[in-house]
């Protein structure tokens, strides 16, 4: 996810308390489990903020394991919630869900550009969306949000664990997706486990740093932004 981080005063403490409580309640609903069966369709999801007040969310659906593109949709809307560090999912989720509703081909699992449980309160955007949609989800992020890890080997396919610095809990895997490039941070969201998230990420690599579902979601986001600008 491409986050817009506007400057400004600190967030309203009452809002932070409310959002924290909501995340804690949602966290109780998260389930870590393998997929019931091998996916036929896998989706990639990405969001960006063309302006401080607008958001564009994209879904692509691919056949699995061939990764042939089946469908692509987007939704462009207004962002109502202010920026609050650690609670970006609340800014993104409403628009992402509207984009998901446009899909004619519903996926079996969603790969989200962002974090799953590798989040300070274990509720990154992938976990957040998984709970709201009741869909298997996992996150593939380009930067660490929380946790500690040892740098994986420089060759593609090397993996090290991402763990909670205090408890040692496994919250993700750090994956070298391409030789000599910065690693990815892969964590389960909802109705998915770490082994599945890692396996599907590796299965979707086609020579780029990003796996195809999120790479294509990012690619089409740029194309859809052009459509939006032309329409305005």
Automatic annotation (TrEMBL):
Keyword Disulfide bond: no
Catalytic class of the enzyme: hydrolase
Mitochondrion in keyword set: no
EC number, as in UniProt: 3.1.21.7
Marked site (Interaction with target DNA) residue numbers: 83
Main location: cytoplasm
InterPro entries reported in the protein's UniProt record: Endonuclease-V (IPR007581)
Coiled-coil residues: none
Binding-site residues, Mg(2+): 46, 113
Catalytic activity: Endonucleolytic cleavage at apurinic or apyrimidinic sites to products with a 5'-phosphate
Cofactors (names): Mg(2+)
Keywords annotated in UniProt: Cytoplasm, DNA damage, DNA repair, Endonuclease, Hydrolase, Magnesium, Metal-binding, Nuclease
Localization of this protein: Cytoplasm
Source species, domain of life: Bacteria
Record-level Gene Ontology MF annotations: deoxyribonuclease V activity
Family of the protein in this entry: Belongs to the endonuclease V family.
Reported function: DNA repair enzyme involved in the repair of deaminated bases. Selectively cleaves double-stranded DNA at the second phosphodiester bond 3' to a deoxyinosine leaving behind the intact lesion on the nicked DNA.
PANTHER family found in the cross-reference section: ENDONUCLEASE V
Protein name, as recorded: Endonuclease V
């Amino acid at each position: 996810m491409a986050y817009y981080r506007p400057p400004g005063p600190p967030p309203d403490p009452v809002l932070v308390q409310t959002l924290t409580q909501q995340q804690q309640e949602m966290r109780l609903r998260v389930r870590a489990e393998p997929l019931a069966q091998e996916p036929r369709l896998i989706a990639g999801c990405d969001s960006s903020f063309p302006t401080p007040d607008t958001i564009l969310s994209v879904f692509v659906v691919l056949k699995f394991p061939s990764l042939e593109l089946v469908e692509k949709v987007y939704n462009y809307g207004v962002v109502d919630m202010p920026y609050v560090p650690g609670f970006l999912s609340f800014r993104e989720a409403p628009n992402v869900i509207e984009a998901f509703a446009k899909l004619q081909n519903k996926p079996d699992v969603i790969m989200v550009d962002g974090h799953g449980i590798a989040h300070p309160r274990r509720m990154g955007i992938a976990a957040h969306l998984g709970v709201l949609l009741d869909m298997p989800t996992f996150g593939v992020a380009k930067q660490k949000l929380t946790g500690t890890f040892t740098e994986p080997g420089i060759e593609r396919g090397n993996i090290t664990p991402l763990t909670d610095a205090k408890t040692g809990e496994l919250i993700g895997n750090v994956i070298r997706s391409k030789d000599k490039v910065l690693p990815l941070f892969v964590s389960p969201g909802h109705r998915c486990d770490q082994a599945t998230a890692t396996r599907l990420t590796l299965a979707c690599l086609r020579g780029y740093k990003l796996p195809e579902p999120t790479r294509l979601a990012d690619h089409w986001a740029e194309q859809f932004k052009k459509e939006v600008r032309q329409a305005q």
